[in-house]
Design goal:
Length: 378
């Protein structure tokens, strides 16, 4: 099984096109054509994590945080730790792939997994992605309707939440008159034709649009198919930031703080008090999502669990929402479980013998110190 097969599978779930525009997701080092022995998963690729991957004969490493985020101008392997790491990766013929904000924004991705770890019910996106949806409308003669719609669906069109193959079909009449150079699929050249056609409408996300149009054109019998692409203002139902859900039973603030610690297996968190009353509706977002504070408040969440919250941002949430900074690593690490499960399922279905290992060490750069002098490994 090649790295490409694994990557294609992952990207059908977490398309790189859905990632933040300034992100650097995808293949980082190596070749997608390489044959995969064993897969290694980690949140960040530290040297220790890389050594573990090498020791375990893993030749495909999948990280959440991109190995290369800022441009590298020189590969000075003596003075630059990142360059040293890349050199070691190449020496061992390893391929590194990163799924970052595309994994954050997809359904059952990082924030969904955080919500599931906290046993929330009725999980949905906190804020759906905007301006990523299009309506592809094409006019098709009736006998080609199934072929053309199937082609668009196969290219990722027509997905609305848990529904697939969604389309709207309206019968009407198309007209045309081809020049002497044409070879019309229906009727004759240089003759005004009136043909029963169906107006087929399908929703397509930006990142599938090129593929969907190409598939539609290939399946369409006409020399010059008529079609329209409408960019939509609608929120994208299939992709979004953060997640929202409800607790099984309401909790007091103290109960909830303890519950977060237990769920995420942490000893420390930072928070500011929210409004009075019990915690029932909870917003979560793995990693640095304090800019979603207003969305969490507007969604009437009683608590918002995220990370990397600044002092003044805490102030913005004070007395409005129980605002919790539970740590960047701590709110994201559980997402490796879902990646592992999905890859194992895919490998089983393909009847391949490729193992998936999850790094057991911590790549968290943040440590906690308390006055008793105990170092706590986060
Ligand atoms: Zn992160």
């Amino acid at each position: 099984m090649t790295a490409k097969e694994i990557i294609t599978y992952l990207e059908n779930w977490a398309p790189p096109g859905a990632a933040w525009e300034r992100d650097n997701v995808g293949l980082q080092v190596g070749s997608a054509e390489s044959k995969v022995n064993k897969i290694f998963l980690c949140l960040d690729l530290t040297e220790k994590a890389l050594d573990t991957a090498i020791a375990n004969n893993c030749n495909l490493i999948i990280t959440h945080h991109p190995l290369i985020f800022y441009p590298i101008y020189k590969l000075d392997v003596r003075n630059n730790p990142k360059a040293k790491l890349i050199s070691k990766i190449i020496k061992h013929d390893i391929t590194v792939y990163s799924a970052h904000t595309n994994l954050d924004f997809t359904k059952n991705g990082v924030s969904y997994e955080l919500a599931k770890t906290m046993k929330l019910k009725n999980i949905r996106f906190l804020k759906n992605l905007d301006n990523t949806l299009n309506k592809l409308t094409v006019f098709v003669p009736e006998n080609s309707l199934e072929k053309v719609s199937k082609a668009i669906f196969s290219a990722g069109g027509g997905v609305i939440g848990e529904y697939k193959k969604c389309s709207y079909r309206l019968n009407g009449t198309g007209t045309f008159e081809g020049s002497e150079e044409t070879n019309p699929a229906v009727g004759e050249r240089e003759k005004f034709e009136t043909v029963p056609e169906t107006r087929l409408e399908v929703l397509v996300s930006d990142w599938n649009l090129g593929k969907a149009v190409a598939a539609m054109l290939k399946a369409h019998p006409y020399e010059e198919p008529a079609f329209d692409i409408y960019p939509l203002k609608n929120p994208n139902p299939n992709f979004g930031m953060g997640a929202l859900g409800e607790l099984n039973k309401p909790m007091s603030t103290n109960e909830f703080l303890a519950f977060v610690c237990d769920s995420l297996k942490i000893d420390n968190l930072r928070y500011t008090n929210g409004k009075k009353g019990k915690i029932k509706t909870v917003a979560v977002c793995g990693g640095s999502c304090s800019d979603l504070l207003n969305e969490a408040i507007s969604a009437k969440a009683d608590a918002f669990v995220t990370a990397d919250v600044k002092y003044h941002t805490f102030q913005d949430g004070e007395n409005k929402i129980l605002f919790i900074d539970a740590g960047h690593y701590e709110t994201e690490i559980f997402s490796l479980n879902v990646v592992k499960n999905m890859l194992e399922k895919f490998i089983r279905e393909k009847k391949e013998n490729v193992k998936v290992l999850k790094y057991k060490g911590s790549t968290n750069p943040v440590k906690f110190y308390n006055k008793k002098g105990e170092n706590q490994i986060a």
